[in-house]
Write a structure and sequence with these properties.
Layout lengths: L1 E4 L7 H4 L10 E9 L5 E5 L9 E3 L3 E5 L7 E4 L5 E4 L8 H6 L3 H18 L16
Antiparallel strand pairs: 1-2, 1-5, 2-3, 2-7, 3-4, 6-7
Length: about 140
Amino acid sequence: MKVRFTGVEGHEQRVRQGADALRPGQVYEVLETCSQSDGPNYFRIEFHRGELPPMFDSRLFEVVGPKMHPTWTACVGWDGSITLAPPAWQVAAFWEEFMNHSPEAVEAYETVSSRNRSAASGPRSESPALLEPQPV
């Protein structure tokens, strides 16, 4: 799925959290979605390779490419939240292990995100560049 960052103007601070690193008008590939049963929805977006891809409030974006990766699966959390993501990333404590630079977690992340970038780029051979505007 691809989304365009619409900017932070008019949103409360809690919605804008972390979004200063994003550029208005920029199109980003969504790596994971999380819908909370009693709160906001989030998109996990990689905007700087090699760092933990953060979750951003979905209200800061518009969907410009609605097709999700065919390998994504749904997971319902103990709190009723629903996550759509690659199965390898839905393993308990995956993101904590990734943040701790666990070789297995880093390899799983790189393998899946590389495959997703290749699929997102379609028949073109190049991967979409991060921090550069993407054609829709």
